[in-house]
Specification:
mainly alpha; 5 helices; single chain; globular; 116 residues
Length: 116
């Protein structure tokens, strides 16, 4: 089952790349921006609760899709780009086993404990 879930995330990551290619940005913007959602880890400086909240906001696919949809509806490419980056990054993280965080600490995710 774990392999099937990872393959699903690979497909979603490829979807993100496809959607990015429909925008009028050079390809290198995707590479430059793909790790920016991880800046949300700075929230852990203020404790596990705030860190998990900040991390989960920037790694939630539903929020990413909502941002993309607003950008698409309003024809604002930079908003679409933000949604695509958030969505693609979240899929990429899940491929590597990084899920949404619990307040117990960074290594406790909805996909299991990181490192086990």
């Amino acid at each position: 089952m774990k392999t099937v879930l990872k393959l699903e995330e690979v497909a979603l990551f490829i979807l993100g790349i496809f959607l990015f290619n429909r925008l009028n940005y050079e390809w290198w913007w995707f590479l430059v921006l793909i790790l920016t959602p991880d800046l949300s880890m700075i929230g852990y400086v203020f404790g596990n609760k705030i860190g998990a909240f900040a991390y989960n906001i920037f790694h939630h696919k539903g929020i990413a899709l909502l941002i993309y949809a607003v950008g698409f509806y309003l024809s604002i490419e930079i908003v679409q780009l933000a949604g695509i980056i958030l969505f693609s990054h979240s899929a990429m993280d899940r491929i590597f086993g990084y899920g949404l965080k619990y307040e117990k600490g960074f290594k406790y995710t909805h996909l299991g404990e990181i490192g086990k």
